[in-house]
Task: inverse folding
């Protein structure tokens, strides 16, 4: 009988690090079981290394991120770690960090477990970084890619450093995302490997030819030697060069994945599924038919973006900035109004009361456009309320209209009819704001009249583990 395949998934997120151990379900290899998981807050925010970045700079201390990763590993069952046959890694896309070849880390004994400690590394400049102004971005060469370049994207950050802190770049000869770095350190790679998922998130990468815009970048003086080599997502980057906690030396490590793609992989069981995640913000993701190729020029005004997935396919992504955060803003406003009237009320009580009131108010003529934060494709758009009448002013009416507005805003970005044309047959609903809000669920059903399945939350660490699990099972069959 073949040994049970256990894989480890790691997700290096913006605020936390998560690790999960996954194996195929006994008797049904198409299903999986999460054996154990652990999350730790990274608490890695730190001041920018370049003073010129100003308050818009958003950087994280790599040492703290790796410390949180090791805390996660230490909390997982040792007997399960010994069985690990593959490691999948995902993380926050777009960001960039730098290190010196051969000096990126040092392996040390921490108690009973060997760990790697970052050495000649920079901070991670994250996707939230705002140092690249609109004027600066407009001065950059036009990419040969279907994706626009924005502030916080790796190549834009390198261009900014080249102009504003040229000496900073002289200290390093290698660059990658935080998850590319972890894979390189685990495997002892001289040069990092990067999946096309992460390369596309940096900008100046052509997904059709699977290559960087080297001529365009070199002509602009960009240090192209910093760009990692690109590999297929789902392929193996190398093997662990050291025993790591209880994981044996020589364990396969996958090329690092984007957290969006790993999250979708964790719960999109069929290509005919769409994934709707409503937490702080909202993402509606569908798998594009095989053979689909996006237009080769970027369109910043388009509400849907196309990101590389697996096997040269794409995900269509409608990402709204206005989700659970809008409901939280509304709750905060109500609590503030009551405080102004001399009444103290807990936000949690207000939330449950307003959802209960909206559940009893099945319809309303009130219309709320909830875009208090604008949208990436409409940055200047604000929120509005229309159709106000004296009969529609109850808490139930307003909350029902607000929940409907959040879903209708998403529907305007990626309509139900478009999903049907792409062959979508089911919606997988996930995320904290959706799971605890019956009114939002009703509005999802109203706007997207398809079967909606709940219960399998998106989880990038689980998705990264599953990619390696599928690889392991395929190898066993062959």
Result:
């Amino acid at each position: 009988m073949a040994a049970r395949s256990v894989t480890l998934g790691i997700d290096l997120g913006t605020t936390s690090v998560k690790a999960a151990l996954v194996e195929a379900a006994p008797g049904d290899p198409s299903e999986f079981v999460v054996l154990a998981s652990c999350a730790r807050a990274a608490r890695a925010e730190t001041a920018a290394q370049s003073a010129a970045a100003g308050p818009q700079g958003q950087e994280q201390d790599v040492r703290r991120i790796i410390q949180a990763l090791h805390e996660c590993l230490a909390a997982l069952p040792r007997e399960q770690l010994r069985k690990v046959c593959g490691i999948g890694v995902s993380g926050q896309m777009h960001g960039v960090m730098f290190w010196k070849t051969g000096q990126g880390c040092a392996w040390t004994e921490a108690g009973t477990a060997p760990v790697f400690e970052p050495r000649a590394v920079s901070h991670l400049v994250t996707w939230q970084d705002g140092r690249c102004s609109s004027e600066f971005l407009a001065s950059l060469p036009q990419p040969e890619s279907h994706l626009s370049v924005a502030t916080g994207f790796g190549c834009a950050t390198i261009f900014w450093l080249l102009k504003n802190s040229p000496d900073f770049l002289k200290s390093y000869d290698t660059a990658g995302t935080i998850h590319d770095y972890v894979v390189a350190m685990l495997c002892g790679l001289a040069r990092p490997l990067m999946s096309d998922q992460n390369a596309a998130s940096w900008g100046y990468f052509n997904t059709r030819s699977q290559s960087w815009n080297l001529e365009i970048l070199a002509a602009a003086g960009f240090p192209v030697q910093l760009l990692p080599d690109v590999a297929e997502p789902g392929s193996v980057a190398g093997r662990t060069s050291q025993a790591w906690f209880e994981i044996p030396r020589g364990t396969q490590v996958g090329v690092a994945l984007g957290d969006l793609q790993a999250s979708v992989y964790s719960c999109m069981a069929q290509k005919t599924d769409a994934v709707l995640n409503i937490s702080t913000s909202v993402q509606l993701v569908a798998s594009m038919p095989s053979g689909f190729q996006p237009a080769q020029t970027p369109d910043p005004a388009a509400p849907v973006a196309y990101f590389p997935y697996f096997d040269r396919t794409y995900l269509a992504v409608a990402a709204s900035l206005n989700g659970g955060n809008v409901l939280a803003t509304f709750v905060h406003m109500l609590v503030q109004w009551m405080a102004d009237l001399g009444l103290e009320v807990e936000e949690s009580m207000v939330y449950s009361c307003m959802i209960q009131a909206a559940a009893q108010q099945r319809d309303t003529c009130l219309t709320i456009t909830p875009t208090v934060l604008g949208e990436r494709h409409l940055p200047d758009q604000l929120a509005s309320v229309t159709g106000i009448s004296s009969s529609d002013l109850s808490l139930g009416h307003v909350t029902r209209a607000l929940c409907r507005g959040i879903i209708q805003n998403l529907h305007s970005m990626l309509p139900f009819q478009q999903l049907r044309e792409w062959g979508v047959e089911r919606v997988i609903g996930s995320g904290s704001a959706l799971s605890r809000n019956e009114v939002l669920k009703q509005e999802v059903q109203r706007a997207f009249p398809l079967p909606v399945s709940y219960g399998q939350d998106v989880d990038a660490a689980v998705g990264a583990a599953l990619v390696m699990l599928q690889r392991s099972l395929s190898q066993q069959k062959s």
About this structure: DSSP finds 16 helices and 26 strands in the chain. The mean pLDDT is 94.
